[in-house]
Amino acid sequence: MTNAGTLHRIPTRPWRWVPWLVLSQLAVILVWVLAGWHWGLALMVASHALFMVPVFLPNSRFYAPVLSRLPAAGNSVWLTIDDGPSEQTPAVLDLLDRHQAKATFFLVGERVLAHPALVEEILRRGHDLGNHSHSHPQARFWRLGPGTMAAEIEGCQQALQAVSGRPVRWYRSVVGMTNPFVAPVLRKLGLVRVGWSARGYDGVG
Ligand SMILES: [Zn+2]
What we know:
Blueprint: H1 4-7, H2 18-35, H3 37-52, E1 79-82, H4 89-98, E2 103-107, H5 109-114, H6 116-124, E3 128-131, H7 146-164, E4 170-171, H8 182-189, E5 192-193
Parallel strand pairs: 1-2, 2-3, 3-4, 4-5
């Protein structure tokens, strides 16, 4: 990534959604009082949906900046591989070597600690690393509170730092879900959130 400097979009205002939430709920109260509960309730449901939907959109910038497309990429693509390291990692590395391709591996902290040699092999073959949470809690990642979310992202960061000896600057949300408590951790750790513009659907049978 020679132009990585221009790709760095660490969140600078992680709480910028708060005033909008307050304003929207004040509007709900106003409508409730002036136009009746039917309209008030409808507006309340709509306003809550507005704040919920972006959590599940992998490329939504509502709660944090996200890189989903390379500026002026020409014919190049950024290959990213999630969820390792695992016993499948060596085969993936061989495949990349056969095509002289480099990738970024978004790793899970617990698996990093379980397979440090595989992490070293990823780096030895010239690939890059990213943070993909410490335990990959895919069913509940969307609703993690501030403390658990920080522990997930910081735990992975510490595992990557301990095994690779270098700071990691890329982050990918579990199943692409980004709730309001992700951005403050990214700002603290200097991490850039990465989405995607195409996917292989290789995680399903
Ligand atoms: Zn994943």
